[in-house]
Amino acid sequence: MNKLIKLTLLAGAATTALICGAQAQENPYEEIPGVWAPLPDGRVWGSTSTVYYGGDGTIWAAERCGGNGNCQDTPEIDPVMQLDKDGNILKMFGKGMFVWPHGIHVDHDGNVWIADGRGDEERGVGHQVHKFSPDGELLMSLGQAGVAGKDNYTFNQPCDVLVAPNGDIFVADGHSGSGRAGPNNRIVKYNSDGEYIMEFGGAGAEFGELYEPHGLAMDSQGRLFVADRYNDRVQIFTQDGEFLMSWRQFGRPSGVYIDDNDILYVADSESNSGGTRNPGFDRGIRIGSAKTGWVHAFIRDPDKSTRFNVAEGVTADDEGNIYGAEVEVGALKKYIPRGSRPRR
């Protein structure tokens, strides 16, 4: 029996055991009531799947210009914002530069990366990943503006972006629609100058294959965690694209985040929401260990009146507070610990 088969069997057995307790965990968090992070001038939150802790006491997010359509239709709105931990807006930028902000990452230098998950070919915007300075200066763009494709430098609905400690850039490409498989279903790797290195994944449900890679995170070991949403699993890879393991105990993942203590936060906004969307699982935010895969806490969605509720994007600050970016409702939520931090 070769190494991969042994690893696959072990991973499958371990995941089966972990799933049994994944939904029975307590919720040691409470939601800040009311509208957290109100926007200025009476502006309301549109859909947002983008939220990321800046590492400096601030939170970064982007919303879809008051709705869930094309931000090019409201070019006067700045969709990208920096907030403090109390929800006060510190700065805003990005007007006219996006179609559909989808994924966000803050690198070790404080630069803000955003994946634009749709395109507007007529206006020449979208299907790109943008790198901004903390002050909103555009520093780099990957992909071809407004052009969908699948070559080394063209994306089709990129979902998320992550920058490794050595500066390598990983792009999750691309999004699905109306239950159909996305056209690319791959992870594309670049060096810090934006030069193509390799790609991995490919459409499918076998280990290492992807069906809508919706989010990215990296642990202290340098392993890449992929929210393989339509396959109802988190997959873990080396930075060279070697498949390591698959975890189903965190539900149907839309967003993934790993903090400095290797605590894994997974936003599940779609489980048990109809059709084949992971029946038998409740949706919510699961918190556990990126080292062992054990789920330690679960913020269960209390509202079943909407089809896709709670967070698609998730992050946590250095005090253990959790922030959820909500698409269906259109909001940014904050959850604070009731007691001690979840154990690792």
Can you describe this structure?
The chain is mainly β and 344 residues long. It has one domain: Neuraminidase (6 Propeller), CATH 2.120.10. Helices cover 5% and strands 38% of the residues. It has 1 helix and 26 strands. It has one helix at 3-19, and strands spanning 29-31, 50-53, 58-62, 80-84, 89-93, 101-106, 112-116, 119-120, 125-126, 129-132, 138-142, 158-163, 169-173, 186-190, 196-201, 213-218, 224-228, 233-237, 243-247, 255-258, 263-268, 284-289, 295-300, 311-316, 322-326, 331-337. It has a 4-stranded antiparallel beta sheet, with no helix packed on it. A hairpin with a 4-residue loop joins strand 25 (322-326) and strand 26. The model is unreliable at 340-344 (pLDDT under 50).
Key descriptive features of the protein:
single chain; 344 residues; mainly beta; Neuraminidase; 4-stranded antiparallel sheet; 26 strands; disordered C terminus
Spell out the CATH superfamily. Answer: TolB, C-terminal domain
Roughly what is the average pLDDT, rounded to an integer?
90
Number of domains: 1
Q: Uncertain runs with pLDDT below 50, 5 residues or more?
A: 340-344
How much of the sequence lies in strands comes to 35-45%
How far the N terminus sits from the C terminus, by CA atoms, comes to 33 Å
Largest sheet: 4 strands, antiparallel
- Tell me the helix content: under 10%
The run of helices and strands is HEEEEEEEEEEEEEEEEEEEEEEEEEE
Strand order of the largest sheet: 1-26-25-24
CATH topology: Neuraminidase
Overall 3D geometry? globular
Count of distinct strands: 26
Instruction: Give the count of helical stretches.
Output: 1
